[in-house]
C-alpha cells in the first residue's frame, strides 16, 4: 500500500470509532473520517471507500462523498467561487470545493468562468500535495472527438467553451463534437466554461465544426437597428455617427462591424425613423425626453 495522497479514492478499514467520527487505516497509516462525511454508521473492521483531501487546517482527511472526477477521469465541475489572483473553485461532488489555479485559466480575467459556469476538469496535486482541479486541454481530447455529420450544416447547436483566445474559442457540444468559433463570428470573447448557442457554418472533413454566434443577417439587422434607436433615445435623439464614421469607432462603440452598422442605418432610413446631416444621425417623428 502506497503513501496516502490527496485526491486518491481508496478502500480502507475502520480501525476504531471516536467522538467525532472514525479512524481509518490502510494497514500502515491512519486517517480521520468525520461523522458528517459518511451517510451510515460504520463498524470496526468494516471496509469503506473514501476520497482523500486536505481540510482547512491542511490536515489530510477522508470523505465518504466520492467525486466523479479522478486523476485519470475528466468530468464537469460547476464554478462556485471566483478568487482574483488565485483562481476559481469548482464543485466536484465532495464536501469541499476544489481550486482551479489561475495558472490554468486565461490571462484575461474577463474570460475567466463565472459562478454557475462549468469546467471539464481532472484532478492533480500542487507542490504541497493538495488536490487541485485542472481543466481539459486540446491535447487531452486528441483522437477522442466524435465526428459530426454533414447534415448539421446551418443547424443550431450548443455547447460549453473550454478554450478561449484572441483567434477564437473552442467548445464541446452536447453531442461531443469539437466546435470552433472564429473571433469574427462573435460579438465578444466568450468565457471559459460559458454555455453558448450558435449556428453551424461549416462541417469540416475531420468531423469538427465551425460555429457562428452571430445572428443571421436579417435578424442581426433588426437587433442592430433597435440598439441604435436605444442609443439615440438615451442621448437626446442624436448619434454623432453616420455612414462615413470610422469603422474602429463603430466597432468600439457598438461592438458591430461597419457593414452591420450601415445595414441597420439603411433599415432605419427606409422606415423613416432617422435622418442624417452634418455627420450626425437623428431621430425623427419621435419625442425624446
List keywords for this structure.
five-stranded antiparallel sheet, OB fold (Dihydrolipoamide Acetyltransferase, E2P), 289 residues, mainly beta, 18 strands, 37% strand, 15% helix, 4 domains
Structural summary, described in words:
It comes from Natronobacillus azotifigens. Residues 154-214 form the S1 motif domain. This is S1-like domain-containing RNA-binding protein. InterPro entries: CvfB_fam, CvfB_S1_2nd, CvfB_S1_3rd, CvfB_S1_st, CvfB_WH, NA-bd_OB-fold, S1_domain, WH-like_DNA-bd_sf. Belongs to the CvfB family. With 289 residues, the protein is mainly beta. It folds into four domains: 9-63, OB fold (Dihydrolipoamide Acetyltransferase, E2P); 75-136, OB fold (Dihydrolipoamide Acetyltransferase, E2P); 145-212, Nucleic acid-binding proteins (OB fold (Dihydrolipoamide Acetyltransferase, E2P), Beta Barrel); 217-283, Winged helix-like DNA-binding domain superfamily/Winged helix DNA-binding domain (Arc Repressor Mutant, subunit A), CATH 1.10.10.10. Helices cover 15% and strands 37% of the residues. The chain contains four helices and 18 strands. The protein has helices at 138-141, 217-233, 247-254, 258-270; strands at 9-18, 21-25, 30-34, 47-54, 60-63, 75-83, 87-91, 98-101, 118-125, 131-135, 156-164, 168-173, 178-182, 195-203, 209-212, 238-239, 274-277, 280-283. The strands form four sheets. Strands 3-2-1-4-5 form a five-stranded antiparallel beta sheet, with no helix packed on it. A five-stranded antiparallel beta sheet has the order 8-7-6-9-10, with no helix packed on it. Strands 11-12-13-15-14 form a five-stranded mixed beta barrel. Helix 2 packs across helix 4 (258-270). The longest helix has 17 residues, at 217-233. The mean pLDDT is 91.
Amino acid at each position: 500500500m502506497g503513501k496516502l495522497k490527496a485526491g486518491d479514492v481508496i478502500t480502507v478499514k475502520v480501525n476504531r470509532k471516536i467522538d467525532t467520527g472514525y479512524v481509518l487505516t490502510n494497514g500502515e497509516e491512519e486517517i480521520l473520517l468525520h461523522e458528517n462525511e459518511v451517510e451510515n454508521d460504520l463498524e470496526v473492521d468494516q471496509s469503506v471507500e473514501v476520497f482523500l483531501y486536505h481540510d482547512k487546517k491542511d490536515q489530510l482527511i477522508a470523505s465518504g462523498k466520492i467525486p466523479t472526477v479522478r486523476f485519470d477521469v475528466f468530468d464537469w465541475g460547476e464554478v462556485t467561487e471566483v478568487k482574483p489572483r488565485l483562481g476559481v473553485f469548482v464543485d466536484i461532488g465532495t464536501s469541499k470545493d476544489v481550486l482551479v489555479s489561475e495558472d490554468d485559466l486565461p490571462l484575461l480575467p474577463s474570460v475567466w468562468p463565472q459562478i454557475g459556469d462549468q469546467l471539464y476538469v481532472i484532478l492533480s496535486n500542487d507542490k504541497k500535495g493538495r488536490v487541485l482541479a485542472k481543466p481539459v486541454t486540446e491535447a487531452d481530447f486528441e483522437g477522442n472527438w466524435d465526428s459530426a455529420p454533414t447534415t448539421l450544416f446551418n443547424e443550431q447547436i450548443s455547447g460549453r467553451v473550454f478554450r478561449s483566445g484572441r483567434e477564437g474559442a473552442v467548445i464541446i457540444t452536447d453531442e461531443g463534437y469539437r466546435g470552433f468559433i472564429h473571433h469574427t463570428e462573435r460579438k465578444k470573447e466568450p468565457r471559459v466554461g460559458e454555455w453558448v448557442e450558435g449556428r453551424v457554418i461549416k462541417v469540416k472533413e475531420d468531423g469538427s465544426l465551425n460555429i457562428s454566434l452571430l445572428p443571421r443577417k436579417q435578424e442581426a439587422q433588426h437587433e442592430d437597428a433597435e440598439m441604435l434607436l436605444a442609443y439615440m433615445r438615451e442621448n437626446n435623439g442624436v448619434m454623432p455617427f453616420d455612414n462615413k464614421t470610422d469603422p474602429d469607432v463603430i466597432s468600439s462603440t457598438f461592438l458591430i462591424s461597419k457593414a452591420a452598422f450601415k445595414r441597420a442605418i439603411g433599415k432605419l432610413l427606409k422606415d423613416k425613423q432617422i435622418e442624417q446631416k452634418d455627420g450626425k444621425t437623428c431621430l425623427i417623428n419621435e419625442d425624446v425626453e
